[in-house]
Design goal:
alpha/beta, binds zinc ion, seven-stranded parallel beta sheet, Glucuronate isomerase, uronate isomerase, domain 2, chain A, 9 strands, two-stranded antiparallel sheet, Metal_Hydrolase, binds D-arabinaric acid, TIM Barrel
Length: about 400
């Protein structure tokens, strides 16, 4: 039987060295140059930090948005790293990114970070950053309704193979008038009424995009009021277009539920919030469509227990990550413990939601730290109960939680 010290070392080493699949990010490969985001100014102007800096500084949001990006970064730096101590998750993250690049932020300040991080990433730099984070590959968020992005795909832009695609359907499901106009302008015959013929066109659109970008899943985010089934455009698009195409193509649908967009529009990208949602739509989807696969995450802490229970009832529901405001040390620890207690190591432990390339460094450092503590404690309990754990068990579980559970679900 392993000693407590050995056990702790096995977990530490397994978690430190596991090659992560980061299954939800907003990153792009360097070849998508107009969309690729990296460098110190972007790290500082992350919308998580904008919201926090606005609490400290006395600048109106209009004045803030009028500033150039480097001036916004300077202002955020002043609020969060000079006037206050960077104790929040996002602010601490900046310090950890700096540390990974050998920059002492206390002495070298923002200029030190600007000197080391590359605002225009090459593949070499992107690979270096992913390697620093121990991330094997990332899944992007690919919006077929974004004109700039569409051009990259239509030109067949080659891309770093560590970036997988995911087809994001927020515009289709949450803004049908815009989607309808866009579809009709790009060769799909859809009228506003969404009859059977239009629905066939939506399916054709989805299949064309599957062929174009080869996504590993379809995804959308929805408000706390999300309902299913319902006789609305969204309900019909789901049941008659998206779910059938997902079934046919054997692709999971990722649902990200509980976001209240633009509760404070002055904050723009930083203005979204969270609210408790209902689990009933997930139950209904999982029960009615056993042939479909659902990757599910909720934004409210209050929904996490019900999600884990729902995953016990339906093998076609895969809980993933601790999303956005839940990605804090306290909540990731709580949620990961609870998931282990209710469904064992059969979920996706985390995703980074990185918007800026270098984010993967601190997001995964944090995830690894929490996972090490949570798993060590659970394994100790298991050993105390007389289960003779092996190092291979630990390696297998860690690999499943950080990567393999996702791929097994996608590929099954
Ligand atoms: O976490 C975030 O950065 C949010 O702004 C959202 O992007 C969210 O993750 C989403 O995918 O909608
Ligand atoms: Zn996201």
């Amino acid at each position: 039987m392993a000693t407590q010290t050995e056990l702790a070392a096995w977990v530490r080493e397994a978690v430190a060295t596991v090659r992560v699949t980061d299954m939800h990010t907003h990153l792009f490969p360097p070849s998508f140059s107009a969309l690729q985001v990296s460098g110190a100014d972007h790290v500082l102007t992350y919308h998580y930090l904008i919201a926090e800096a606005m609490r400290v500084g006395q600048l109106s949001s209009t004045d803030f948005w009028d500033l150039s990006a480097p001036s916004q970064a300077d202002w955020i730096w002043e609020q969060l790293f000079e006037k206050t101590t960077p104790l929040s998750e996002a602010a601490l993250g900046v310090v950890q990114i700096a540390q990974a690049f050998g920059v002492n932020l206390r002495t070298e300040k923002l200029a030190g970070l600007r000197a080391k991080l590359e605002p225009t990433a090459t593949d070499t730099y992107a690979n270096h950053v992913l390697d620093l984070a121990g991330v094997d590959s990332v899944v992007m968020t690919n919006d077929p309704f974004d004109e700039i992005e569409r051009r990259y795909w239509e030109q067949g832009t080659p891309r770093n193979r560590r970036f997988h695609a995911a087809l994001r359907l927020d515009v289709l499901l949450n803004d049908w008038p815009r989607a309808q106009v866009y579809l009709s302008n790009t060769g799909y015959h859809v009228g506003p009424e969404l009859g059977e013929v239009d629905m066939a066109e939506v399916r054709r659109f989805l299949k064309d995009w599957v062929a174009k970008i080869k996504p590993v899943y379809f995804a959308f985010s929805a408000p706390d009021t999300f309902a299913f089934p319902e006789d609305t455009v969204r309900g019909r698009l789901l049941s008659d277009a998206i779910l059938p195409v997902c079934r046919e193509q054997r692709l999971p649908l990722a649902l990200m539920i509980g976001v209240r967009r633009q509760v404070n529009p002055h904050l723009r990208s930083a203005g979204d919030s969270t609210a408790k949602a209902s689990m009933l739509p997930i139950e209904a989807l999982a029960r009615r469509y056993p042939e479909n696969k659902f990757l599910v995450t909720f934004l409210a802490r209050e929904d996490q227990h019900e999600l884990a229970v729902t995953a016990r009832k339906f093998g076609n529901v895969m809980p993933f990550g601790c999303w956005w405001f839940l990605n804090t040390e306290t909540l990731v620890s709580e949620i990961s413990n609870m998931r282990l207690e209710l469904i064992g190591p059969t979920f996706v432990i985390q995703h980074s939601d990185a918007r800026v390339l270098e984010h993967v460094i601190y997001k995964w450092r944090r995830a690894r730290k929490v996972a090490t503590a949570v798993l060590t404690n659970k394994y100790q309990q298991l050993q105390e109960a007389g289960w003779d754990l092996t190092r291979e068990d630990v390696d297998r579980d860690v690999n499943q939680l950080f990567s393999q559970n996702f791929w097994d679900f996608v590929q099954r």
